[in-house]
Write a structure and sequence with these properties.
2 copies of one chain form a homodimer. The first copy, chain A, is an alpha/beta fold and 366 residues long. Chain A has 2 domains: 3-12 and 243-361, Lyase, Ornithine Decarboxylase, Chain A, domain 1; 33-231, TIM Barrel (Alpha-Beta Barrel), CATH 3.20.20. The first copy, chain A, contains 12 helices and 21 strands. Chain A has helices at residues 16-32, 47-54, 66-72, 91-98, 110-119, 144-155, 178-196, 210-215, 235-240, 272-275, 323-328, 342-349, and strands at 11-14, 36-37, 60-63, 79-85, 103-107, 124-131, 139-140, 160-167, 204-207, 224-225, 250-260, 265-269, 280-281, 287-288, 291-296, 299-302, 308-312, 316-320, 334-338, 351-354, 359-361. In chain A, the strands form 3 sheets. In chain A, strands 1, 11, 12, 15, 16, 17, 18, 19, 20 and 21 form a 10-stranded mixed beta sheet that branches. The first copy, chain A, is elongated and about 70 Å long. The first copy, chain A, starts with 10 loop residues before the first strand and ends in a 5-residue tail after the last strand. Chains A and B meet through helix 5, strand 11, helix 10 and helix 12 of A and helix 5, strand 11, helix 10 and helix 12 of B.
Chain lengths: 366, 366
Amino acid sequence: MSYLDHISSPTLLIDEKITRANIKRMAEKAKKHGKELVPHWKTAQSHEIGNWAKEYGIKQITVSSIKMAAYLCGQGWENIHIAFPFNIRETSKLNELAKDQSLSVQIVNPVTAKTLASKLTNPVGFFIEIDAGYGRTGVNVSDFGTIEEIMRISKTSDKLTFKGFYLHPGHTYYMPNKDEIYDQSRKALQMLKLKYQTEFPKLATRIGDTPGCAVMDEFGDVDQLGPGNFVFFDLMQAELGSCSKEDIAVCLAVPVVDIQKERKEILVHGGGVHLAKDVLVDAQGNKNFGEVVALHENGWSILPERSYLKSISQEHGVIKASDSLINSVQIGDLLGILPIHSCMTADCMGAYLSLDGKWIDHAEGK
Amino acid sequence: MSYLDHISSPTLLIDEKITRANIKRMAEKAKKHGKELVPHWKTAQSHEIGNWAKEYGIKQITVSSIKMAAYLCGQGWENIHIAFPFNIRETSKLNELAKDQSLSVQIVNPVTAKTLASKLTNPVGFFIEIDAGYGRTGVNVSDFGTIEEIMRISKTSDKLTFKGFYLHPGHTYYMPNKDEIYDQSRKALQMLKLKYQTEFPKLATRIGDTPGCAVMDEFGDVDQLGPGNFVFFDLMQAELGSCSKEDIAVCLAVPVVDIQKERKEILVHGGGVHLAKDVLVDAQGNKNFGEVVALHENGWSILPERSYLKSISQEHGVIKASDSLINSVQIGDLLGILPIHSCMTADCMGAYLSLDGKWIDHAEGK
């Protein structure tokens, strides 16, 4: 029996070898540079894949919601960091989890710091998130007033401990000048470290995003690296140059339900509820919702001629097929689709099937 | 205790009154025109909301996958139609479900018809899906060869019964000339009915899409209407003119985690994993991932000045706020977000919270 025999409907496959190679490569890179790798587990959201990561020296992880933290508690992580501006409506849930698990949160304003300082019943660390140009979230890097107010408030509590500065330069995803953005981000963290390390000698700086951590080879005096997507990679990362398509570790198996030979189109069961709706648009405006790979007993392989999902709706996917694919495909076949954004696809699917036919867990619920 | 007290993290709210009014309005419209309403339940995917629908005379529903059908089996539906080109890898699952539930499927090619004709162990109906210009799926309206081959194959089986023709003119979502598209679709179905009704006197024609069924007032001799989204509506439908914003029956409650007064931006916990990534883009290229409503004890209300989600990532949402909102909002508040595409949002969230604090079911798993 091959893992393919388990599949009758859209199923997210994981290649354990590729996943392990991705984790190992990033762990070795961090080690070589003397940095600690604290991966963002919002991509994998899995106990089992966490166990693989531990074999490469990973001891701490990051998540993006308290529900994800709750799912990963009690799995032997030295610390779980919730890298999202803390939501004060979840303070009692945080207290509950912090009884048995070392946790840290992210703070970006004094209101949140005050709430935590007065309401925490168990020790929780915090990072101040810094915005050095991305503009999504974080305290502006030169807003020392806010930074110091948050630090001052935290000192009124024996439960809330300042751990350092966290920076997610998410604009490396969109900008051509990645080197420049990285340089700017590193300098921002370095400046803050120099300014505050006398007062907080243990403060750590953490920077996290896959394009940067995959491509750069100079991290300056940043202490910790926090990329997430590298565990699986995806077509967006391949386009950004973070990986090759051969490094992508997950793929959606989809059943072929119709073939339109004249239009060179293949209809598959696989749409927005499976892949999410992330899309790459080329210079001519053509949309790409995922690329076709051939599935076989031992996994999948990149096709010599490119075929891709040109459109998706809730459950339907329409593949623009190459000549060789359209001439060989049959109704009832399974094809593989490499995702545009693996974090979102994994979150949609909620489970992985390994190539030896085992189900691998993923957090459920939002 | 208000329903708001139940909420600490992103939660999908449902207003039962609005939902019932939407169902009632469409049921009355169908009745007035002498048509049967067979709603597409991929939007609600719920037992409980199905029970509401039954009160307005709804007896049959449509779904878009066999898993969704499995979830809705045994709930007293006279028939559940799986409106997706049948996936022959799921034949044994279909046989299993068809033991206890009247089901129908969609067929678009002879290969699938042959498989079902030879492998069905229980009676199953089928519609031939017709493509009259949308181009996503279905047999071309003038491809009588394929249509008749499918009919011929079905006659070799005493389990597979031809029920009629199904047409989803999904291009009404994108095209300005909805009337013309509708006219074309109706004429296509009328032609097929005239051509084949001597041979199949009971054959029914079904047309389904919310923009058409909501706006049109002339359905010709089509027998059944199959819209889905109208149960909840959403901002996409409001933009298309199918509804007003007041008719939207679901809204995502999101906690405010940071406020950037100078930029007039509010950061909320609510992103792509909650809302999906459907987006409306205006003539100036501004993106809209959802619009803000005020939440109160009895539900929500449209704000006089518009505020909207200008960007989302996996968990983050950034609201571009009006002056009045930015001056009144507090960290820790809850805001409501009307979704762009309610089917996708409901599928992401997997449950609804009613305004009296009860959880309402939604199918889980893909």
